[in-house]
Amino acid sequence: MLPDLTRITRKASADPTCRFTALAHHLNEEFLLDTWLRLNRRGSAGIDRQTMQDFDSQRESAIRDLVDRSRRHAYQAPPVRRVYIPKPGQPAKMRPLGIPTVADRLMQAAVARILSAIYEPDFLESSYGFRPERSAHDALGAIESLVFSHPIRWVFEADIRGFFDHLDHQWLERMLSLRIGDPWILRLIGKWLRAPIDDQGTRTRPAEGAPQGGPASPILANIYLHYVLDLWFARVVQPRCHGEAHLVRFADDFVVLFEDARDAQWFARALPQRLAKFSLKVAEEKTRLLPFGRRVWALTKSQPRTRETFDFLGFRHVMGTSRKGNFRLVRIPTPKSVRKFYVATKQWMQANRHAPPGLQQQELTQRLRGFYQYFGYGTAIPVLTRVRQAIHRAWWQSLRRRSQRSPRAWTDWAVKPWFHLPSPRVTQRTGNLRVSVLGSRMR
């Protein structure tokens, strides 16, 4: 029988102090099968090298085995396979990911669904990442609304250094125990946090952190930052402010918007102390306080090149001017976002340079449309157009190198029906799109 997650959510919402003491029985065959059908099938194999297809071919018996081990409290979290991927926009630097086995991924996803049902009523409006019916564009929309409708003059942009690497296990378990009273669920989460990490045959047990790559990591990160940042901001920071103050958080990425400089400066001093209590640190080189908002825009009309910008969720936010001469919030892809996309796409071209041109065109079209879909604000169209042109030129150069007899001139390729890539279009709603971003200082 499927657990009634809606009923769990209603109970959690009705009683914010309720501790759920009986949750493990929800991990039954029907619920795990339903969770399996919802899982992303693109995941890599874990330490046992079992693929999603392998598991699916024997899913009935595999799920029965998982349920049996869970009921006997005999389930052990297998080692997590560590892989390294290039950092966004920094292909020379690598970021570690933890890849659980497929079976462990299923167990994590099932528990994550239960945790989400309990914690969704607790999470505040300021939190947008990895939550149902919320997205990065909702967070961006919140910033736009605050900048336009509130007397914002200051923006504090911050970065938590290695958040997933330094998440404190004991603090997280204390936080979870406020809502979770089922000892087996708590033990399962503890097993995942402390599961051995296999790094090319060398195994270590982590004393802190949560490997990025497992389905449980996003909800655990949200729970941690709910107590560390969101509640502290709502209960301590906002009540002591002289003016308005608003937090917008997407996972471990956040910005804070202030009306009063005194509040912003106090927050900049208080945040490192707050994070340190929970074994976290601010990345000082990526953290700063800057003037930003409608009133700042008005004061800098005569000196537009002195205007500051800030980056959030891959977008650079700029104080621009509309066609009618009014303030306009301009959003364009950051240079880092553009570089990440260009490098990844060019690497794909190099690895598949001998594939049929028609198949290359299909892949490049799909990649560009995905890029347009995320960044498709009207103010970003000029940048997206330049990205398309750069990709098209790189593809042309790749095709020219395929053979000594390949056509050399662009015009020779342009007549071919498959040598076309889609142009960008507006996919995200915003206000007046005809704006000028010239004069805003790009850092």
Automatic annotation (TrEMBL):
Name of the molecule in the record: Group II intron reverse transcriptase/maturase
Enzyme Commission identifier(s): 2.7.7.49
**Matches recorded under Pfam families:** RVT_1 (PF00078)
Keyword field? Nucleotidyltransferase, RNA-directed DNA polymerase, Transferase
Reverse transcriptase domain segment(s): 66-317
Organism whose genome encodes this protein: Sulfobacillus harzensis
Q: Does the keyword Transferase apply?
A: yes
NCBIfam families in UniProt: group_II_RT_mat (TIGR04416)
- Residues of the signal sequence? none
Report the GO molecular function annotations: RNA-directed DNA polymerase activity
